[in-house]
Design goal:
- The protein folds into two domains: 64 residues; 76 residues, Winged helix-like DNA-binding domain superfamily/Winged helix DNA-binding domain (Arc Repressor Mutant, subunit A), CATH 1.10.10.10.
- It is built from ten helices and two strands, in the order ααααααααααββ.
- Strands 1-2 form a two-stranded antiparallel sheet.
- A hairpin with a 6-residue loop joins β1 and β2.
- α1 packs across α3 and α6 packs across α10.
- It is mainly α.
Length: 181
């Protein structure tokens, strides 16, 4: 009997060869991923010179192959801690914006009308914020640092309701109590 042909040999498909190629590609991807993960965990001290560090990396061919393709800034960032450094540099206040609830907005409207009724020459948005006591802010639940920005919406609604009016434009704008005369 002559040698048997495999089922795929006659059709031009070599399943074993395709499988080996895919396996090799996945193996390379996995090795690269492992090398990068290991590199990200390295945090050398200043006791190691750059030359020593690079030579150590070059001794591990998989690690060097992955690291040598990185940009210099990515390389440096990952050496000093990467995501940890970015997270530490980002202030907590910028991470999440919150909206005023209807209750907070209505409370601020009442406070604004009260502050403006006691002011003779009108006040800017930041001056209104400066005239609101910390006790009232704690009751409303708004941080002092966010207050001037949080006043925009209630001020706009009060102007639309004709409870207060404005004089001037943009940075010179002053808010006054009552309807425009």
């Amino acid at each position: 009997m002559a040698g048997k042909k495999t089922a795929g040999a006659g059709t031009g498909l070599d399943i074993a060869a395709l499988f080996e190629q895919e396996l090799q590609a996945r193996n390379e991807d996995l090795r690269r991923q492992a090398a990068l993960t290991m590199f990200f965990k390295l945090h050398p001290t200043n006791k190691v010179s750059v030359e020593q560090f690079i030579n150590e990396l070059k001794q591990h061919k998989d690690v060097w192959a992955a690291v040598s393709e990185m940009g210099i800034l990515d390389f440096a960032e990952n050496l000093i801690g990467g995501a940890k450094v970015k997270a530490a540099a980002k202030p907590d206040g910028e991470s999440k914006r919150t909206r005023l609830s209807e209750g907070q907005k209505n409370s601020l409207k009442g406070i604004i009308v009260s502050v403006l009724s006691s002011a003779n020459g009108g006040l800017s948005r930041t001056e209104i914020a400066d005239n609101i006591s910390n006790d009232l802010l704690n009751t409303v639940g708004v941080d002092r640092a966010e207050l001037a920005n949080k006043l925009r919406q209630p001020l706009g609604e009060l102007v639309a309701d004709h409870k207060i009016h404005t004089v001037g434009e943009k940075r010179l704008m002053k808010y006054h109590h009552g309807k425009k005369k």
